[in-house]
Amino acid sequence: MAPSTVYRQLADLEQLGLVVHVHLGHGPAVYHLSDAAHVYLVCDGCGAFTELPMVNTMARQLRARFGFEADLHHFSIGVTCRECGAKASRSSPEPAQRRASTRAGPPGLEW
């Protein structure tokens, strides 16, 4: 089966609401079933990723504190992983600290 056929089928499944896609960094889209939200932390340095386990808590806090209903299906958060942070701190501690400080969430959110 040609890759273009697979991607057309995925697009059709997404239109039907059966799957959703998320872009993990600058790589290709990743598809998963639309049964629950999946938010990923993606390292800006090496591309490593992991699923964020507290998505439901985050959605509840956004609703309660800010009045927003969040669609967290198509979502990834750019971060610096432990390994890339350690490399950056060995070579130049200032940029790693600057990146971390610009990634802070809104005040009052405790995920």
Per DSSP E runs of 2 or more residues, the count of β-strands stands at 5
In one word, what is the shape? flat
Secondary-structure element series: HEEEEHEHH
Q: Supply the helix-strand structural class.
A: alpha+beta
Fraction of residues in H or I helices = 40-55%
Largest sheet: 3 strands, mixed
Q: How confident overall, as mean pLDDT? A: 79
Low-confidence stretches: 95-107
Strand order of the largest sheet: 4-3-5
| Gyration radius, rounded | 17 Å
Q: Please, how many helices?
A: 4
End-to-end span in angstroms?
43 Å
Quaternary state of the chains: single chain
Strand content: 15-25%
Question: How would you portray this structure in words?
Answer:
Helix content is 41%, strand content 21%. With 111 residues, the protein is an alpha+beta fold. About 12% of the residues have low confidence. The protein is flat. Helix 3 crosses helix 4. The strands form two sheets. Strands 4-3-5 form a three-stranded mixed beta sheet, with no helix packed on it. The chain has a two-stranded antiparallel sheet with strand order 1-2.
Short structural summary:
The protein has 111 residues and is an alpha+beta fold. It has 4 helices and 5 strands.
